[in-house]
Amino acid sequence: MSLPPEKASELKQLIHQQLSKMDVHGRIREILAETIREELAPDQQQLSTEDLIKALKRRGIIDDVMKELNFVSDNVDQEPPSSPKQPVCFTDRQSTLLKKTNIDPTRRYLYLQVLGGKAFLEHLQEPEPLPGQACSTFTLCLHFRNQRFRSKPVPCACEPDFHDGFLLEVHRENLGDGTRMADSTAMLSISDPVHMVLIKTDIFGETTLVASYFLEWRSVLGSENGVTSLTVELMGVGTESKVSVGILNVKLEMYPPLNQTLSQEVVNTQLALERQKTAEKERLFLVYAKQWWREYLQIRPSHSSRLVKIFAQDENGINRPVCSYVKPLRAGRLLDTPRQAARFVNVLGYERAPVIGGGGRQEQWCTLLAFLCRNKGDCEDHATLLCSLLLGFGLEAFVCVGTKAKGVPHAWVMTCGTDGAITFWESLTGHRYIHKPASPDEPPAAEQPKPLYPYRTIGCVFNHQMFLGNCQPSDSVEICVFDLNDESKWKPMSEEAIKSVCAPGATVSLPPFPPLCASTMDASVTSNEIEMQLRLLVSEHRKDLGLTTVWEDQLSYLLSPALASYEFERTTSISAGNEEFQDAIRRAVPDGHTFKGFPIHFVYRNARRAFATCLRSPFCEEIICCRGDQVRLAVRVRVFTYPESACAVWIMFACKYRSVL
């Protein structure tokens, strides 16, 4: 059967796309290398095409290709099972099956496809990775109306091979009629953008925020047949927010197809009106903020040196009111208590915003999606997330901006109890401190409570509804009175003014808050992997020192209760189970033998990096390099998982040996 040239070209393109998705070329290269290594006789110079085809058939590559090229299959059960660790995304083939089975035909969907990238010039010289070789990868994370998606990782390149589709449900809220499908006019009023965050992960698992982009998707409502293609230029972050980092080719499609599309003029007019309305609200708030600041300085000229932070720059270099970085956030069933929420925020990595050259600290407050996808951020990111979670748990929480020792700027969280008790929460460590103000009027001989917290001064406190500047004679935390209703001590901003720019849906420039995602990590498997790697590293280290290594599995197992107890104490501030652990160890160590143990805690899963850190401790090195009679070594790893693939990794090294005097 002959095909017209254009149909033949289209068919070739489809087959090429499918082969690229399956990485058939990479698999063929592997098999070719293996065949040459195993089957090529020394007197032969080259393999014939027939030999290569036989090798491909023998390994099932051709059968796999033929199965995959069968795009439409009536038997849905033949869909390849997806691993629970796979990202939530839809390829073309999967979407065909989903449209036949799982898609609700009464709902409206936006199908967003990312069809490759180009001009990622930072990776222009990057060589193509060999099959099986570890390489840096790009991952695209999306958030749209409480739905989150993550693309498959693709190798970093000048033209990264993104080929992913995401099915975004466009639903209307507070309608009372859940069965009614949103039409074009209703969808035009949905101003939520698609937030796209590009993350780079290096070969050691370290993540970097590459770009953060808000995609205006409603142009598809004015496109013919409800389908449009866009070229999205991604800009850098922080100091590089004016520099292009690359381009993504994006295709948008409404499903089911729109019965009636709007004119492009109507869509453009709506978008222009929204931008105009937002700009006016932001202008009025700026005028009010300037007036408030003038009044604040008139109280006391020294106020100009206090850390009163009204605006902060996000990762795109845009100034936003600090109150917009906080919102009550409910974690569903992922976190059960405020203290568990504090522990979750604590195990997210701490990293100051990168700065090029010297000149001090670069300040950058991240949007929540960028912080969660990168799994690390600065103290302000941790504080705003913890404050949001504590507000979600029904507490009266505020972010505090001030300084630590040596005048280092810092942000932490404060909660006010109904009885007036003030508690400080350090978001980077999970520690809690009760604040008892010292009285400056007491005689010098009177004993004053010694503060345990590291904070020195405080300039302002804020949450999603309130902003208060500290106008007490001294900004020292130690003697500060936290009666927030006393306007002689705390100058408030108008709640109405804050609501005009920070309330949900108040402006189109306000990034929506994403929901938290459950961990995709298997704690048992990850614990086992790290433990095996550490055993190997210890054995190699001792071998280099001329020492043999004998592991005792039972002793390793007995260390588990101690690690569980340490994590429980970090989460609840309650110590439990220590007596049983000590009793078990006494029974496991014979008379005349000595036991030594060394626990340590990490928030990353890199075994080699953890081992290098452990060796820097003289006590741990003494255990790992133990010499003596009947030396038995043990190591136990316990990974505790939290939302967003955050984790607390506890490691304990131990040894027992016969004491020889």
Automatic annotation (TrEMBL):
Location of this chain's protein in the cell: Cytoplasm, Cytoskeleton, Microtubule organizing center, Centrosome, Centriole
Keyword Transferase found: no
Cellular component, GO, one term: centriole
Major localisation: cytoplasm
Cited InterPro entries: CEP76, CEP76-C2, CEP76_C, CEP76_N, CEPT76/DRC7_peptidase-like_dom, Papain-like_cys_pep_sf
Cytoplasm listed as a keyword: yes
Superkingdom in the source lineage: Eukaryota
Residue ranges that the Swiss-Prot or TrEMBL entry lists as coiled coil: none
Span of domain CEP76 C2: 102-259
Keywords attached to this entry: Cytoplasm, Cytoskeleton
Transmembrane spans: none
Record domain Centrosomal protein of 76 kDa C-terminal: where: 520-658
Pfam families: CEP76-C2, CEP76_C, CEP76_N, CEPT76_peptidase
Single GO BP term: regulation of centriole replication
SUPFAM superfamilies per the UniProt record, alphabetical: Cysteine proteinases
Residue span, CEP76/DRC7 peptidase-like domain: 363-493
CEP76 N-terminal domain mapped to chain residues: 10-69
Main function: Centrosomal protein involved in regulation of centriole duplication. Required to limit centriole duplication to once per cell cycle by preventing centriole reduplication.
Assembly and binders: Interacts with CCP110 and CEP97.
Protein's name in the database: Centrosomal protein of 76 kDa
